[in-house]
Amino acid sequence: EIWLAAFKLEFENREPERAKMLLAKARERGGTERVWMKSAIVERELGNTEEEKRLLDEGLQRFPTFFKLWLMLGQLYERLEQQAKAKKAYESGLENCPHCVTLWLSLATLEEKISGLSKARAVLTMGRKKNSRNSELWLAAIRAELKHGNTKEADNLMAKALQECPNSGILWAAHIEMVPRPQRKKKCADAITKCDQDPHVIVAVSKLFWLARKVDKARSL
User: Fold this and answer.
1) In CA terms, which of 78, 105, 115, 132 is 20 to 30 Å from 21?
2) pTM: predicted TM-score of the whole model, two decimal places
3) How confident is the model at residue 6 (pLDDT cuts 50, 70, 90)?
4) DSSP string, 146-189
């Protein structure tokens, strides 16, 4: 923690070489996974792609279950437009970190770019099997269907999602926006009952008041 605090001080004061030196010393002394992550971040900020990749590879050899390093490696390859390598990085990450939702979402987004909705759908389905009751994965699947105009499939997924995650604020907020206008008032009441004081639900309900020009009510929520 002391090494990282010293690094942060130098880096924020625009002394990248000093920051790099501190991180190098921390790595020599058997630093944690966060030291390798911060080291790669510094090189990314400085535009040193090769050194960034070297540090990520080195870090992953030591800490293969630290998902952020896999995520950064995949993002690096995506920046370089090496999609096949990015896909491999995310897949390797999931072999080591099967419960990391962020990696599942990143792989699904990449698969949609490379191969289309069906591949992304398969990834998100597998992600939900590995991580039951995860509202983020359900919401990603719903939004993927909506993006491609598959409203009926999105509605079916939402129904299943709310059965599995009945108290998820992000799902109820999305549900409010998806239903036809005449049904929204009832869905708002249902959402508030299920997820009292959830910020996502409060924002969704406030937005409806705002659209109806009931600004005072929106503000009071």
Assistant:
1) 78
2) 0.91
3) confident
4) HHTT-HHHHHHHHHHHHHH-TT-HHHHHHHHHHS-GGGHHHHHH
